[in-house]
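Notes on consecutive records. When two proteins share a document, each keeps its own sequence and its own token line. Never mix them. Below: protein one.
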Amino acid sequence: MIAVTAATGHLGHLVVDSLVERGVAPERIVAAVRTPAKAADLAERGVVVREADYSRPETLATALAGVDVLLLVSGSEVGQRVQQHANVVEAARAAGVRHLVYTSAPQATTSALVLAPEHKATEELVAASGLPATILRNGWYTENYLGAVEQARETGVVLGSVGEGLVASASRKDYAEAAAVVLAAAEADPAFEGGVHELSGDVAWDHPYLAATVGEIVGREVVYQDVTPEVHAQILLDAGLDEGTAGFVVALDGNTRDGLLAATSGELSRLLGRPTTPLAEGLRAAVGVASAGRPGARRVGQHRLPFS
């Protein structure tokens, strides 16, 4: 059986969808979720739904019973994730899971990316567990720019402090399909070796291009306004963000400015067997999902923070 944690979340749900589309029988898929009632649509499709709360180890043993391959989708509670992930890894080891797949961050063990430390610690936990594993170092999600679309629709401006930094984003669906490819292969082949995959979009774009793309979507002229990190932080504070969150957003822009999200390894498209989704197509799809009442990420002021 294949288990997908956080299967009611944006990435996890898409992974389950992709597994079914690839021909995996729904009854061979376990949706391991914090709140089973929220997975009613999956249960109606024949997917096995089990409670699995990263912070409640007692739920994890039952959730992973009989599971051969596990996708551990990284948690969204920054600051708590290492212990939460440790609980899942230990439960997987105890349950006899034979292959673990983890969604990490770009160059997690060596990068200065503000999000990297918890992923680095988790990768070390996975290695120490002795479980055969695949690490999917997911790059930036196009959906992270939904906030920029909303901001530009109102103001005609995309604002940031990224300088000339490039971003090789891909759609969440791209990353989900890649995870499904790996999960299905690992279930089919007990000797599947996995390894570490640096995943990103095929094209690295800059923020003036983002602004132009957003302009096409919202139907007005949109420009990118670059400011200093200090000015950026003050704008965020004036907009009502707390100091910690404002600092986090500015740090992410600094990481972009430093080129930490610009790598185009080609590994994602190779796993998919097709090109990654272009920025415009991915953003338009994300806007459609959000308009239907299913937000694409956690919103903080005019920013949406990634689940990475």
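Protein two starts on the next line and is unrelated to protein one.
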Amino acid sequence: MKSASVLRGIVLGLLGLQLMLAASAARAGEDTIKIGILHSLSGTMAISELVLKDTVLMLIADQNKKGGLLGRKLEPVIVDPASDWDVFAEKARELLAKDKVAVVFGCWTSASRKSVLPIFEQLNGLLFYPVQYEGEESSRNIFYTGAAPNQQAIPAVRYLMSKDGGEVRRWVLLGTDYVYPRTTNRILSAYLTANGVSPEDIMTIYTPFGHSDWQEIIKSIKIFGSEGKKTAVISTINGDANTYFYKELAAQKVDASVIPVMAFSIGERELFGVNTTPLIGHMAAWNYFQSIKSAENTAFIKMWADFNEQRDKTTNDPMEATFIGFRMWAQAVVQAGTTDVDAVRQAMYGQRIKAPSGFEVVMNTNHHLSKPVMIGKINSSGTFDVIWQSIHPVRADAWSRYIPDSAKRTADWTFPWVCGGCIEPTFKEW
């Protein structure tokens, strides 16, 4: 009986040890908050997205130095969708269902965002999308920290039409062939028509992702611009096609004073490896440029340079948008006291930070920011000088007022609307 009692004690002790080890393993899993990073590390979009992966890693490292969030360290979970929109959806599902991440920072193209959107809605995940886009969307599961058309495309065209912008009267809408350029150009065409521009003064051209042969297209643009009316190019070219486009622009000596190019998808980083001397004077419209003078921007640039051990000191607009989204998400987690998606989403409304742009930016209930608008001109060092900016932050319109059906729609995820694009509130008073 004594030996049986001893044996029973040993068995119970082993069971207790197993339970302790299991509990310890469970606590270890709970000790970190997993952050998904969903950016192309290869393929045509890697030229733009790689740096956003590193920006998130920088922000995670910075937050961990401060003790993490809610007493837990942040742990990055990195995947590579490789510039393939179907793979974006696969990787999004993997991050949410398998890795159980608390939040995802990712996507660049609207094609990739459209691909993952139903996954985030189905699994109730949270995506922070950091790039300018065409609008016409407001998902309950996405926060859009880049520009909507009324924060970039419309002000850029309005500027070019003004005396300061050269009084442009003829337009080339040039873009990569996918949803963002096509929808943006639809909005711009409606805006230009409403402002008296004839359809014959608008030329629209689309090219595939990664397009490298721009010779004939630029020749046709030069011909179009030589017919007696001041002409500008509005570029929604994305990815590494930009490098080839600007090299050919320089080769054919397209002078910015004659036919200026206004880009919506290139910044300081996309001009790496391009001789910018022939490109001086061409423009881009964003909500942030590295050349901005503000204490917040000085700190942001230093943070990035320190993270890279001074090997890379160049920042751009989508990096700033990533910074804004990450900081707001962290503030919302602290406010909610949890990483639960529903609680964090509610805490996001009204979040504000002083951004590197020097402006205080605010998250609105349509899941878009109020941000400043800026226009920059390429200088001899390959960066941009800010030549115009809005006086105050501009509130994003999720739906364009220049498209009749969209103009009727409201995006507001708070009561009584609780919708991303309806024409009347979801809930009505009894």
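For the record: The first strand starts at residue 32 and ends at 38.
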